[in-house]
Each structure stands twice: as C-alpha cells, then as structure tokens.
Specification:
Layout lengths: L3 H4 L7 H11 L12 H8 L3 H15 L3 H25 L1 H9 L3 E6 L2 E6 L8 E5 L7 E13 L1 H4 L5 E2 L19 E2 L4 E13 L5 H11 L6 H32 L2 H15 L3 H18 L3 E3 L3 H6 L4 E5 H5 L5 E7 L2 E4 L13 H9 L8 H13 L11 E6 L7 E7 L6 E7 L1 H7 L4 H15 L4 E10 L14 E9 L6 H10 L3 E5 L4 H11 L7 E2 H5 L3 H7 L5 E3 L3 H13 L4 E5 L5 H6 L2 E5 L5 H6 L2 E3 L5 H40 L8 H20 L22 H8 L1
Parallel strand pairs: 9-17, 9-20, 17-19, 18-19, 20-21, 21-22
Antiparallel strand pairs: 1-2, 1-3, 3-7, 4-5, 4-6, 4-7, 8-22, 10-11, 10-16, 12-13, 13-14, 14-15, 15-16
C-alpha cells in the first residue's frame, strides 16, 4: 500500500466541504431512466387496429350481457399488453447495469484520514487512493503514482493495460487510450501499482456517463417487416371500418336492427383485418430463436432475426471478437536466434531461451494481475519447472517501478547466504536498450529485430539482467550493470474460425468493417490474417476532422477504422445507416453499448461481453464464436423466406373468412361468424396452421445471393394476387 509519508501530502476535502459538493452535484452515478408505467404502455399498445376492434367487441358483449365472450376477447388484449410491458422492463435494464458499474466502492482521503465510502458519494476534488484490484470510481487526474497500470478495455476495447504518469497541472483532459496519460476514468480497473488521484468529474460528466447519456438519446427503430405489416394492417383497417359502417347502415335502415348491425360490422372488420400477422411474427421469431440457440446464439430481441437476412454491413470490434482478447507468448528472441511458441505442439523450450523467460519471470509480481505478467508466469512454470531456473526460494529486496521517462521495471533479488543480488528488468525495448547503455550499432541492430517482429503484430517486451554485491542499493535503475538478455513477443490470437466465417460473409454479399481502438499497424496485421481488405484505413484523429457527409463518402470504401473512441463508433454506425446500409455491429465492452443499440442488429459476446453490452444488444454469442454470426445470418434468411410463404397463406385464408362474414348479410341469412369466432380463428387457428411453413428447408442458394433489397415489399403485387386467387 502507499506509505503514510506519501499520504501526508494530501489532506483531502473536509466532511463539510464534501457534503456541500454532494448537495450541489448529486450522486456520482448515472441518472435513472424514466420508466413507463403500465397505463402509458397500455395507451401505446391499444392503438393497434385489431386491439381496438377487440375492445369494442368485448365492450358490446358486456352491454348485451354475454360476459363469457366478452372475457375471452378482452383477455386477448391484456395478454398482448402484458408481453409489451415485459419487453419494456427488460430494455430499461441497460442504464441500470451501467449505473451499477460506474459506482464502485472508493477509498478517499478526507480530513487527513483515509475513508472507505460508497462510490456514489464521491465528489469532485476528492482525493482517491488507488490500489491494485480497485475499480476507479470517477474521472480523475493522477497526482502521484508507483508503477500504476490501468485496464481501460471497458472504455477503449483494447486488451492491454496502459501506464499512467503524474499530472503536471497544465495538461487538459483527453479521452481514454494510450500510455503515459495522467488521467484515470470511472469504471476502469487498476491491474498493477498504486497511486493518488484528484477527482475532476462525476456521474453523467465522466467518460462512462457520456456513454450512458448517448444510450438515453438512442431510440430503437421498428424493424422493416413490422413497418410493412403495420402499413398493410392499417390499409385493411381503413377498408374494414368502411365496410363496418356500410353493414351498420344496411342493418339499421333496412332491417331496423342496429345492435346486430354493429356486431355484423365488427365481425366483417375483424374478418378483413389480417391481425394474424403479429401472432405469426411472434411464432416464427420464437421458433427461430430456439433454432438459433442450438447454434449458440441467444436472441434477446426477436426482431433481430428478421433483420439478419437483410444485413449488408457487419461492423466488427477487433479485440475479443476477431481475437481472443488473451495475450499469448508467441515468440522468443535471444542471442540472434528466434524461437516460435505454438502451444499445442511445443513440449520443450531449448536451453538457450531459458534465461529470457527466467529473468522475465523474476521481473514480474509473484501473484500478477497484469495479463502479460500472468502469461509470463504461466509459460515460465510450464517450461522451466524441470530446470533450475525457477527460484522460488529467492527473496525480493527492492522494486524499481516504471517512471515517466523510463518504461522499465526492475526487481532486486537476494539469492544466497552470501547476500549476492540478482537484478531482473523488463520493459519497452528502447528502455531496456537505455539501461544496457547500448551504443549506436547495438541500438540499430535491436531496432531491426524489433521492427521485424512488430510487423507480425507482436507486442514486444525486452529483458535484461545484472549482478550486484551487497552494498547500499542505488537510487535508480541506470546504476546497475545491465546486460541484454532477449525479447518476448506477445500476440492476441485470431479466433481460428474467423477467416472461414469472413469468407462466407463475403459470398453472402455482407461487407465487413473492422473498428478498433488499436494502432493501424496492428489492425492491418489482423486484417491480413483473416482475409479483410487492408489497403486503406481511417484513424480516430482523421475521423474527427471529417463532417458527416465526408464520412458517409469515405466509409463506402474503407474497411478499417483504427484508434477509434466510443463516440466515433456511434458516428460510423450512423454514417452507414445514412448510406442505406443495414448494419450489424459486434462488440463486448461498455464502449460499444451506444453503437450496439444504434445498429439495426447489435451482437455481443456472452462470455467476455460486459453486462452493459449484453443489455444493449439484440443477439448474444454464447460461445464467443464469430462463425456463429454467419450461422445466425443463414437462419435469418431462411426464416424470412418461410415467413413470406406463411404470410401469403394468411392473406389467402382471409378470403373465405371475409366471405362467410359478408355473404349472409347480402343473402339475408343468419350470421354465421361472430367477433368471438373470428378472433379465435385469427389469433389461434390460422397461426397454428401456418406453423407448417416454419419447418420448410432453406433454399439451395441462400448464402450465395446478396442480402435482400429492403425496398422490395414483403407483399408485392404478384404475391398479393396469388393469395387472392
């Protein structure tokens, strides 16, 4: 923990000052989303024509004393309203999850004392004490730090933690991403080191809060099929109302029986109105969701199943979606030689590479939190367990942390009773070269090796060693006689099934766009590995200089977006939508939530995805397998084809239903069908009969044809005439 001498420099706010700020600023959390009550949802739902007819018919049955039929008709209304109410409550969980994440416990200094308080009670100017394993409760500037490493993947989407430097009192706040920034952000995680920070923003004003604010402003669009069926139902509803008034007039003026005329008119209106469409959609999408679950895809919003078949662009988050989000040691360099680690094949590490791994292990924490240190420990214990290079009995004497101008860590170990010291260092190659006092020739040789390994997408860590006799230890790492040992190359592996899945997406006419917070070189390397066009890219700073129209034009040909921040992901999705694309977006971090919600289809990872991302998405990949998306697209296209067949059947079956309601009136015969009969036929019998179409096998060219044109109606003139015939 931080020493008491360090903390004495920070008195913090007084309790009175904190209370005043708390009263002025409010809780350090995202505001609650205004919930819709049951009555407002009910008013929204009953505007559906069929429900209005059911309510009118049920009310009429109550007036004439037929309570049994009235209860049945009104029960249909409350079932539909109940389903909508349930879906609305599920949608409201997005911001609630984000609020919980943004308000962890916090250790602050107030009145010269350290106090553990709820994260929601943190105010601006509070002094935070940050330690390994803590979640940062608010946005802040770093006042002092010791080897402070922060995992900002929740905001940037990138798997590697970043180093933090101390604030100079002048530098202006900037967005998360990149090493050596003096800013920490709400919701991020301390993976190593310790520090003291001063709070600059809380609640909705934090970077996390901006994401929550964006989520509040995004309104989900109705799906294409729902819009089309809605237009069709409204057209039939107008025709039904006209027929209802006609029948009412015939009965009232010709037969003098206004009540029977009203019932006959309502019956005909219901017979004309194809309200089965909504029931058919529920049945097909429910069965479709079941089929998708067998392919490890969880459907959170049924409408996404239909939209999948029309998707034209798939926006892919690199880390955790195309890659495993798990740094693996892939290569070792020592004394001019390279060794490639393929973990399922390599059983033994050559002796000449043992030293690199052993000294890297000595430069790590004993129980590491950092993902790269965890990997070094895992590989070291795997390959060095049978050698003399695991020094579990050595004692750690001193640690030299990262400093602003030297990205290297050194650990001093006592190795025997003679109290000889062994020093192990690891860090950035240029920092280790500096510690080893390389000449110009040695630096150039190292840079050539580093450049060659970096082109393969490797993240490099250099390792050095030194011996030291028992004397007072120096104040800085430079005073040790370090010797260069070698390089370790780490890679975030591409998921094995991604290249084949990407190829199938191309055959199906679906364009793939990579959006990442990583550097362009890394993004291009991953693109080459999976078969994505890597000729051009746009970076976040370049995108900032573009207006909406320029972005819309550029995005037509660019498939890689690098160094992108959350707000820009949302801008990319909106630009694609403005170009008429049907956009599917994958992601797993909090930073992806706004874009996931704005996309036509939001897809997140079930294993690695955050709660916020899952709540904002339409589909969840239960096994984090990218190829499952393509299986889902195939099923989406099949479901749409079969849905079209079922809808044609429904239109056709309405001809005899309408005829049985209309002919008795013109032929002066007793009424055959009453509203209760028609409701039973349309909401139970017809949907049950249409299930046969759901089991129809897929068409042979289903994944060789381009996505369907959303401008082509579900019910074209040809389909409509065929149904009538």
């Amino acid at each position: 923990m931080l020493g008491k001498t360090n903390l004495r420099n920070y008195s913090g706010l007084s309790d009175k000052e904190a209370q005043e700020k708390y009263n002025k600023e409010g809780y350090n959390e995202l505001p609650y989303q205004r919930r819709q009550n049951f009555f407002s949802i009910f008013l929204t739902v009953i505007r559906e024509p069929m429900l209005l007819l059911l309510i009118a018919s049920g009310t009429l049955y109550v007036l004439i004393g037929d309570l049994q039929d009235a209860a049945m008709l009104l029960a249909f209304v409350f079932v539909v309203v109940g389903i909508v109410f349930y879906q609305e409550r599920k949608a409201e969980r997005v911001l609630e999850t984000l609020r919980n994440l943004s308000s962890p416990r916090a250790l602050v200094i107030r009145d010269n004392q350290r106090k553990r308080i709820s994260g929601r009670e943190v105010v601006t100017d509070d002094i935070l004490v940050l330690r390994e394993g803590d979640r940062v409760p608010a946005d802040a500037v770093v006042l002092s730090s010791t080897n402070l490493l922060i995992d900002e993947s929740i905001l940037t989407g990138e798997s590697l933690p970043v180093t933090k430097s101390e604030w100079d009192g002048k530098r202006q706040k900037q967005q998360a991403g990149g090493d050596d920034l003096p800013f920490v952000y709400s919701g991020t995680l301390v993976v190593a080191g310790r520090g003291v920070a001063k709070v600059t923003a809380t609640g909705i004003d934090t970077e996390m809060g901006k994401i929550g604010k964006a989520l509040q402003t995004i309104h989900e669009e109705e799906t294409l099929i729902k819009k089309e069926t809605g237009r069709l139902v409204r057209s039939f509803a107008l025709a039904g109302i006209a027929l209802c008034l006609l029948i009412l007039a015939i009965y009232g003026f010709v037969r003098g029986n206004w009540l029977d005329g009203f019932l006959a008119g309502l019956t005909l209106s219901m017979a004309v109105l194809p309200e089965e469409f909504s029931v058919i959609l529920v049945i097909f999408f429910t069965l479709g969701a079941w089929r998708m679950s067998k392919k490890n895809v969880l459907t959170r919003r049924m409408s996404a199943i239909e939209t999948l078949g029309a998707a034209t662009v798939l926006c892919v988050d690199k880390t955790g979606t195309l890659t495993l989000n798990n740094m693996r040691l892939a290569a070792i360099f020592s004394d001019g030689s390279h060794f490639e680690l393929v973990h399922d094949k390599v059983k033994q590490l050559p002796q000449k590479f043992h030293a690199v791994l052993a000294y890297a292990l000595l430069a790590c924490q004993k129980d590491p939190f950092d993902p790269i240190e965890k990997e070094i420990k895992r590989v070291g214990e795997t390959f060095l367990s049978q050698s003399a290079n695991l020094h579990r009995n050595w004692r750690l004497i001193q640690e030299y942390p990262l400093i602003k101008h030297l990205f290297a860590i050194s650990h001093v170990w006592e190795r025997d009773s003679k109290q000889n010291y062994v020093v192990a260092a690891k860090g950035a190659p240029e920092a280790i070269a500096d510690l080893c006092h390389f000449g110009e020739k040695q630096k150039n040789e190292l840079l050539l090796t580093v450049s060659a390994m970096s082109e393969r997408g490797l993240r490099l860590i250099a390792v050095a060693k030194a011996s030291f006799r028992k004397t007072p230890l120096p104040k800085q790492q430079h005073d040790f006689p370090f010797k260069f040992v070698g390089l370790l190359g780490f890679v975030d592996p591409v998921r094995s099934l991604v290249p084949a899945a990407l190829k199938e997406a191309y055959h199906a006419g679906i364009r793939v766009v990579m959006i990442t917070g990583d550097y362009p070189g890394t993004a291009q390397f991953i693109a080459r590995k999976i078969g994505l066009d890597d000729d051009t890219y746009i970076t976040g700073p370049q995108l900032l200089q573009m207006d909406h129209l320029e972005l819309r034009e550029k995005i037509k040909t660019v498939n890689i977006f690098a160094r992108i921040v959350p707000e820009q992901k949302l801008a990319i999705v909106n630009a694609l939508k403005a170009n008429g694309e049907i956009v599917a977006m994958t992601g797993d971090g909090v930073n992806d939530a706004a874009a996931l919600k704005a996309a036509h289809i939001g897809i997140t990872m079930g294993d690695r995805g955050t709660d916020v991302a899952r709540e904002a998405s339409d589909l969840v990949l239960l096994n984090d397998d990218f190829s499952s998306i393509i299986h889902a697209v195939r099923l989406g296209r099949r479901i749409y084809d079969n849905l079209k067949k079922a809808m044609s059947y429904i239109l056709a079956i309405h001809v005899p239903i309408a005829g049985m309601s209309l002919f008795p009136i013109f032929l002066n015969l007793p009424i055959v069908l009453l509203p209760a009969h028609v409701a039973f036929l349309e909401l139970i019998i017809d949907p049950a009969c249409s299930i046969v179409f759901e089991a129809e096998p897929e068409e042979g060219d289903i994944m060789q044809r381009p996505p369907r044109n959303v401008k082509n109606p579900l019910f074209g003139r040809k389909t409509f005439m065929l149904s009538l015939l």
